[in-house]
Amino acid sequence: MQKTNPLSILFAVLAMGCIAVLDTSNKVVLTSVPLLMVLWFRYAFQALATTAFLLPKEGLGLFKTNRFALQLLRGLLLFGCSFFGFKSLEHIPLAEFTAIGMLTPLLVTVLAKFFMKEHVSVFRWLLIIGGFLGALLIVRPGGDVPLHAALYPICMVVVYAFFQILTSFMAKTENPLSMQFFTGWIGTAFATCLVFGWWTTDISTFQLGLMILIGLSGTLGHYLLILAYARAPASSITPYLYSGIAFATLLGWLVFQHIPDFWASMGIALIAICGIGCAWSNYQGK
């Protein structure tokens, strides 16, 4: 078995730490700032930072694409994923939200079976079923996640899974850096069209600082993931992405004094075990 580059592991874990900071900051600021304004700031920050970093290196080649329609669709899919994620954080504790989000690799496996005709073994089907049973434990009646609010992270997972499938398809012909560039600006353009009715100038220094932290942690997290995937196969990186659940649980306790109850903890653990097992199975070719 090929050994995973230690740097790729470090980058993946640090990326998940950044994303946990992003989600925590979102959950705090969304209590007092309109969602679409926060979403606009998050995309505008990423678009400007990405352009400032990549344009001097790539030049006009950064604007080159053979599939602009797919770039547009990809940007809209990620925007939709972000919107559902932000709505989720208004209603759902951090650890439970992060765990449900980790169903994405399992759903990608299902979609790859039907859209890309990839083989899925019986073992992986069992893991996929186990992961979704874990989600049911989290959103069960009487738990910390209201049933109506559970629709938001489920929609996020579905949209992000299609985003991942489209990304995999486009990566065969498109420059990954150009894809990152277009994604940021398409999200910014779409958010700009929606934010006007929700814009407010009544922002405190603390709220502004949180939105800057959201933009910074989101941009850095995605960049670290690019560095991780550049050094190791996706299947060998995926298990380390579940460190995000640990980060989210810790920050949820420190910032919101929330600890998942017994059944939610069992659901979180089941999603993590099944997700890691699916990644291992894919790495082994089983």
Question: If you had to describe this structure to a student in words, what would you say it looks like?
Answer:
The protein has 286 residues and is an all-alpha fold. The protein has one domain. It is 77% helix and 0% strand. The protein is built from twelve helices and no strands. α3 crosses α8 (176-195) and α10 runs antiparallel to α12 (262-284). The chain is globular. The two termini are 14 Å apart. The model has no long low-confidence stretch (mean pLDDT 87).
In short:
This protein is mostly helical. Helix content is 77%, strand content 0%.
Oligomeric form: single chain
| Count of helical regions | 12
In round numbers, the mean pLDDT is 87
Number of domains: 1
Radius of gyration: 19 Å
Per DSSP E runs of 2 or more residues, the count of β-strands stands at 0
Structural descriptors:
globular; mainly alpha; 0% strand
Question: Secondary-structure blueprint of this entry?
Answer:
Elements (H helix, E strand, L loop, with lengths): L5 H24 L5 H24 L9 H24 L2 H8 L2 H12 L6 H17 L12 H20 L5 H20 L9 H27 L2 H8 L1 H14 L5 H23 L2
Helix pairs in contact: 1-9, 1-10, 1-11, 2-8, 2-9, 3-7, 3-8, 4-11, 4-12, 5-6, 5-7, 6-12, 10-12
